[in-house]
Amino acid sequence: MNVNNKDIKPFYIYTDKNSLYIKNINEHTEKLCNNIHTYSANIDNSKKIHICCVDTSGKLIHLSNTNGYWKKNVIGKAFNNIKNIKNLRTYILNNYLNIFVVEKYPLSDNLYRVSHFNFSPSNYKVSKYHINNILKDKESIYKLNIDDSSNIIFEYKSPTSSRLDSTSNALIFNSNSRIWTTNNTLLRSSYVPEANEYCSHVQSNIQDDIFEYCYSIDYKI
Fold first, then answer.
1. Cβ–Cβ under 8 Å, residues 88 and 101
2. What is the pLDDT of residue 12?
């Protein structure tokens, strides 16, 4: 795997029987964690690997690697029912981790909930926010981008009372205050392309999870 950084050696991160592993180019395999339901990872500006996971009990876990050593931190209980989790993505902005988790409504084929977790690995003070009643539209659940001030722009559609139409919505996560807002002035010069698990051909200025293409790997030791 090539992550476009000559100082970072190719490696794989994968799960097998709910255990999380990392395998480097030298064929060395290391077991990182047990009982993992889903995971996502990225690399910060200091070339440190960050892996965010949800385990089989619904706990949110953060793993980081410094100088070859892995550190595990359990953020806390985040989900009561992991069966509804469909996707997890990790983005790193201004040394803060942003985790987006998509859950499907159990009684609807097109409604979803997205949970956002924001924290710094230096103190683990978590800011969390839930966006409900998201309507899947043309194979897309949400659209994500970053403006010039490093604010996260989150666009989605929600159903109307008539059930025959949908409403477009936009939320902005202020990277300084760490608060979500509907302030439309932040959107005037922002183009928001597709950035989710269903769309990969549209360009975005947000750095995607580097392990996206590895999610379906069923590697046997």
1. yes
2. 85
